[in-house]
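ZP: hey, is the FE2/S2 (inorganic) cluster complex queued? I don't see it on the tracker
AM: it wasn't, my bad. submitting now with these inputs:
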Amino acid sequence: MEKENFNRRDFIKSSIKTLTVGGLALSALDLKKLFAEAESKSPGGITKVINLSDYPDLGSVGGYVTIGKVIVIRKSESNFLALSLKCTHKKCDVEYNGSSFECPCHGSTYDGNGKVTNGPSTKNLKSYKTTFNSEENTLTINM
Ligand code: FES
């Protein structure tokens, strides 16, 4: 009797673990599929395609969004700028104030195009090529 209860309890515990692990694996697969639709890797790097209708802040000139460690700024109706938010001094995350960047770690500053305006950084923020497709309202970023 005692052994039968123990086995039943073990079976329930094992079933719960199996369902949990299976659910997590399925979630990971779903997320991987989701990201695969918007991002692809090539020998040249990662190409990310975003639909601008998903980013209303990019709907007007001067608008910007951050996507991971990259900021995308709409410079004109058809021109976008994508910059790394990693400071080129010691890799802290820089902050954007709507017109320029500042690093909170050691005070480097960059203009609105990512060009160094004050050290200790000596290199501009890394920029990524962008391609705007006005018909599809998409932006391709080559990272
Ligand atoms: S890490 Fe940005 S100024 Fe040093």
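AM: back. The chain is about 25% helix and 30% strand.
ZP: great, adding it to the tracker
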